[in-house]
Amino acid sequence: MSRFRTRQGLAPGTARPGAGLRRRDTLRLLGLGAMGAAGAGALSACAPSGGSGGGGGDASASTFGFSSWSLNEEASKPVVEAIVADWESAEDVSIDAVSYPYNDYLTQLTLKLRGGQVTGAVQLDIAWLGALAPMGRLLDLSDAAARGGYTEAALTSGQYEGTQYGLPWTTASIGLIANSTLLDAAGITEQPTTIEQFEEALRALKDLEGITPYAAATKVAQLKDIFPWMRTFGSTLVEGDTVTIGDDASVEAVEWYKRLYDDGLIAADVDRFDARALFAQGRVGFYDDAVIGKGATIAQASDPALADAMVPVPRPVLASGDAPQALLWGHVIVVVDGEGSDAATEFALHTTSDTATVADYFERLALPPTTAEGLGDPAVAQDAFTTEWTERITATATPGPFWHLTQNAQIEEVVAQQVQAVLVGGSSARDAMNAAREEITGLMER
Amino acid sequence: MTPLIGAARPRRGERLSNTAFALLLTLPGMALFAAIVCYPLIASLVTGFFEQSLVLPGRSFVGLSNYREALQGDFWPVLRQTAVFTLGATAIPFVLGFALALALNSGIRGSGFLRGLFLFPWVIPGVVVSFLWMWIFNANYGVLNGVLTRLGLIEESVGWLGEPGTAMLAVIVTKSWASFPWIMVMMLAALQTVPRELHEAAAVDGSGAIRRFFTVTWPGVRGVAAIAILLEFIWNFQHFDTIYVLTGGGPAGSTETFAVAVYREAFHGFDLGRATALGGLWMVLLLGLVGLYLRMFERETDR
């Protein structure tokens, strides 16, 4: 008899019929666990979190958060970090800085805001205000805005349905930037002003070895850049509540974009960050960017002379005399109602309107200020690139067609997905744009 | 009633049967399971019957509308893409892992070092692996295009992640690279349980290497191989990070699997109702696979 017998007369680990858990049962339980895990894996991420509806927290607290994608980008990170550090030491407050990459920022912010995990000041793209303001978590900053000395146009970029949720940090536009050195090398003596001239210029650039003539967005993240081209071809995109994407003009624009893709004039697998990297290597003739593009691109360029070669180009038009299309662009700082919101409001006001701060911000990142005083600062007023950009591109810029809608991000993604399907040959431009119109209409009706 | 002389009276704490005691021990785990698995699961399934936004408050009951929309919309293409990815990302690492396990089991020199070396891809976090391969496959400054251009195999850069045909292949290659080591380890362990005497006896009987593989080696490792394949299949069926980082489901949805589609619906489209409906359909398929796994596991343990 084994000396390891138990009181029941069985060795440890020996299954006893009718009592205890048998090995088979254990395996079954493990299987049930696996089933549960499979289901949970599939679904639990979508479980409603409940979120916290109201503001909550001590508004007068001296600790608050600051969410910013600029803290995630090489060029802007040290500049914004310095602003935060200076304000912390000057005002004896503590700022918890949080950052996400630009392309994931809206999703991350939405989730955290819904879960009540965001406090303080939040940097926003002006296109996102419509998505976040309806959540009811942002403070009305009208009083602070009145103290900032912002221009009227800039203030508008921080408003949603008449309420001033955002203090404008920078306001400009998205347009084309060209490498004049490459244009010279390709024999392009004048900036193209029409689509036809633009295409000719791209074909001339294609003859240069290793050059991407136009680093247009072909990844979903920035394919919303197609909107100004659609407008260039004459589409209104939306009229009131009626989506007009799918009209002849928008289809023609996408067919043209597809032709550029097929002819190798634009490249596969490009988003804004790829375009900047390629431009910084001197391998791109034209690309779409905001005015910040100059600073962001120069920061990663090995050739300092590239800065002098960068020129803003108004978007070519369909017929001479048409107004060049450009998309308004800018950042605002909003404040989340709750913990530290008073101090966060002061921080947002200082960051966006203190003349010394915004002038320094401009000098280091080429981001134009939004206050009359800031714009009048010699560093800003005498900058040739920014002045040219403002006069030639921002002058005719318009807001995104769907910015006012909560579903703006989804709508832009729908169009981007459909355009991408055309580019890779999965759909005709007509079918894709009709499908986009139907889907967008459905989204707008929700 | 007079107690029987000599009969041991159960003391306090000894009244529980083994079954009851075991169940008692599992209670904390079961409670945790209910809180972090059952509740979200049920809540999510319920959400599938509502129109609910991630951004806006409130929701409205829409019955089976979300499920109907999912079946009429994304479900079938996503199922096809999930199947292609899952099959590819299971078959390739299995063949590779098994081949390497056979090589290592044959007693080649340096097998210990090689075993450690081959495990390297497995210990790197999945997102890091994905970024690594994203740089390799990048159309405009990727290593792969650079190498192929220098070798004269291509004249113009290939958009590996930007074309539907190559994007799925790139995703499968990346996932295979990350997961072949664990299959190699599993199969190596199984191979080491096959008695060497059987090989020797078969060799004495005149069996060649291929015949010995099919008559001695494969029967000895077949059970483990089946479980490894099925587990890898289930994991790939749920896989997210490699695809999301490399292609985000693109181009034009050509690499969009269930995991990515549910994420996109929920966190890009902010449509929780449709996301959970799609997730519910996905879960039904997964449960079938898990049931198959359990059946195979039990059969293997009975052997």
From TrEMBL, chain A:
Membrane listed as a keyword: yes
Short name of one Pfam family: SBP_bac_8
Superkingdom of the source species: Bacteria
InterPro entries reported in the protein's UniProt record: Bact_solute-bd_prot1 (IPR050490), SBP (IPR006059), TAT_signal (IPR006311)
Keyword field: Cell membrane, Lipoprotein, Membrane, Palmitate, Signal
PROSITE patterns the record matches: TAT (PS51318)
Membrane-traversing stretches: none
Protein name per the record: Extracellular solute-binding protein
Species name: Streptomyces radicis
From TrEMBL, chain B:
Domain ABC transmembrane type-1 as annotated: residue spans: 79-291
Pfam family, one: BPD_transp_1
Topology of the protein relative to the lipid bilayer: Multi-pass membrane protein
GO cellular component: plasma membrane
Alphabetical UniProt keywords: Cell membrane, Membrane, Transmembrane, Transmembrane helix, Transport
Localization terms from the record: Cell membrane
Family as reported in the entry's similarity comment: Belongs to the binding-protein-dependent transport system permease family.
PANTHER family: BLL4140 PROTEIN, DIACETYLCHITOBIOSE UPTAKE SYSTEM PERMEASE PROTEIN DASB
Name recorded for this polypeptide: Sugar ABC transporter permease
Lineage, opening ranks: Bacteria, Bacillati, Actinomycetota, Actinomycetes, Kitasatosporales
